[in-house]
Amino acid sequence: MVWNRISLFGNQVWGAQIGWNGNIARAPTPLVSSGNPGVPDVSSWADIDGQRISLVTCSVGPDAQRDILCSAVDTNGALRGQFNLNATSNGGAFQSLNQQAADVDSDGARFVVTYEQGAAPSDVRAAVIAFLPQNSSFRLDDSNLPIAVSSGDESGAYIAADFSGGGPGSPRFVAVATNSTTNQILAAEVLGHRSAGGFANRGPSCGLTLTATGVPALGSTVTFQVPNNGVSGITVGAPGTIFIFGCQCIQGVLGGTNFGPTYSMTIGTSPSLVGMVMSVQGWSQTGGSCWGVSRSQTIDMTIQ
Fold first, then answer.
1. In this structure, how many other beta carbons lie within 10 angstroms of the beta carbon of residue 72?
2. Where are the domains of the chain?
3. Looking at the chain, which terminus has fewer C-beta neighbours within 10 angstroms, N or C?
4. 3-state SS class at 85
5. Pairing of strands 262-266, 250-259
6. How many CB atoms neighbour CB 220 within 10 A?
7. 96-144: per-residue pLDDT in tens?
8. Measuring CA to CA, which residue among 82, 20, 80, 85 is closest to residue 49?
């Protein structure tokens, strides 16, 4: 839990860890002491490279030019790193924008932050943030996502993960905002991963089709499948192109490991995996057109 502590020495953000039995697991400690911090919030835990991390957000800076400060905290209550969302989303340059009233949650791998931006009328936007424990750094995987953007005045940014509590889960979030001009409550689904990447088909096939389901994002499960005719399977490995004499299809996987006609994998929660490309191709030894073998198209999977 986090809260504002106000004293003669100025505002601070403090945090403490409370166990399921209601006892204090980690004693209260100051997390942010400068910049007149306010309106703090804390996410559920994310399990990243064997470490459990939560993200604390708060508003800092002068009135009408507030920024969102993000602080990574581990299970020992130690502050692992901080970064300014406003500056980071603009390549490190200062923006004369008012960002405040942040809310944050985790899907077990990354964090999504919603916040109010601009003076009245304000908008509600979101950012996807990864924390890399190896060097205590942050990476902005998506930013400035419009949750509630109109000519009206939107505020009250809230975010909740479809899955919380650390470990592999679902990279989906629900964000809620209020439009005080139209007296509406607005809801949006946010995908807590990079927008770029996913599945891409490559090369022609020789009588076989490979299908892919799921989202290749951190903590998610993907499944590949070819028809099961008794002598078929799937090869998973590095991307490549090998032309086969007399065949219209290619071998699109270099090296690789063979599996049965259905293969599922759960992608790890390490942010270092984002951008990695794996290739998958199906095959069947049932008298196909390529020297007696049927080969599917190759699917290149880029982790988001």
1. 26
2. 2-191, 198-302
3. N
4. helix
5. unpaired
6. 23
7. 778 889 999 998 889 999 999 887 778 899 999 999 999 999 999 988 8
8. 80
